[in-house]
Amino acid sequence: MAKKSPPALSAAEQAIMDALWKSHPVSVLDLLEAVNAGRKEPITRNTLQTQLTRLEAKGWIKRDDSGRTHLYDPVVQETHGRTSVLAELKKRFFGGSSLALVRCLVESGDISETELAELRKLVRDHGKTKPTTKP
Predict the structure, then answer these.
(1) Residue 57: domain span
(2) What's the number of domains the chain is made of?
(3) Is residue 109 domain-shared with residue 70, that is, in the same domain?
(4) Per-residue pLDDT reduced to its tens digit, 40-91
(5) CB-CB contact of 28 with 49 (8 Å)
(6) Separation of alpha carbons 89 and 101, rounded Å
(7) Helix axes 11-22, 78-94, angle to 10 degrees
(8) In which band, very low, low, confident or very high, does the pLDDT at 131 lie, cut at 50, 70 and 90?
(9) Phi, psi angle pair for 82, to nearest 5°
(10) Which has the higher per-residue pLDDT, 119 or 72?
(11) What are residue 63's DSSP bridge partners?
């Protein structure tokens, strides 16, 4: 049975998930520092706490209350989370077409020659390893 896709993320929630996937479990203060690193306008602790509550309600994270400090961990694995977000983006902006999504990336010119070479290799190699199916 396929895993159910988690609810969509806002850009702010995505930034929090990126920080959690890099380092977890993490306290609110450490997460606040990670999320605000490099931001022109830092978010407040209250804003972060609100976003964490929403992420927990959506099933993306869990909170550990067993110690003095609340610690947060991702529930959704990074690969599954990114795949889910990409599937939603593909559906909303490209009518579900992977080709249209990749075409947009390539034609925008935002892909380097190195990335294009890697993409060509991925496409070439994709058909070589077919999963075996049981009767």
Answers:
(1) 11-74
(2) 2
(3) no
(4) 999 999 999 999 999 999 999 999 999 899 999 999 999 998 888 888 889 9
(5) yes
(6) 9
(7) 160
(8) low
(9) -65, -40
(10) 72
(11) 72
CA distance 74 to 46: 20
Per residue in 86-112, pLDDT (tens digit) is 888 899 999 999 999 989 988 998 888
Among residues 17, 12, 23, the alpha carbon closest in space to that of 81 is found at 17
| 102 and 52 together in one domain | no
Query: Given this model, what pLDDT does residue 132 score?
Result: 58
Burial of 41 (0-12, 13-18, 19+ CB in 10 A): exposed
Question: 120 in helix, strand or coil?
Answer: helix
Same domain as 103, residue 49: no
Q: Which two tokens mark 7?
A: 């609810």
Q: Is pLDDT larger for residue 37 or for residue 135? A: 37
User: Do residues 61 and 105 both lie within one domain?
Assistant: no
Contact in structure between 89 and 105 (CB atoms under 8 Å): no
With tokens 């009518």, the residue in question is 95
Is residue 42 helix, strand or coil?
Answer: coil
Q: Which helix (H) or strand (E) holds 61?
A: strand 61-64
